Amino acid sequence: MLVLLGAFIVMASTLGGFIIAGGNPVVLLHVSEFVVILGVAAGVLIIASPFHVLKEIIHKTKDAITAKSAGEKEFTELLKLLYEIFMIGRRNGLIALEEHIMNPKSSAVFQRYPSVLNHHERLEFICNGLKPVVDGKIKPDQLEDLMQAELQAKAAEAHHPIHILHLVGDSLPGIGIVAAVLGIINTMNAIAEGPEKVGEKVAAALTGTLLGIFVAYGFVNPLANRVEFNNASDEQFLKCIKQAVAGFAKGLAPLTAVEVARRSLDSNVQPGGAELEAELKALPAK
Question: From CA 153, how far away is CA 77, in angstroms rounded?
Answer without folding.
Answer: 25
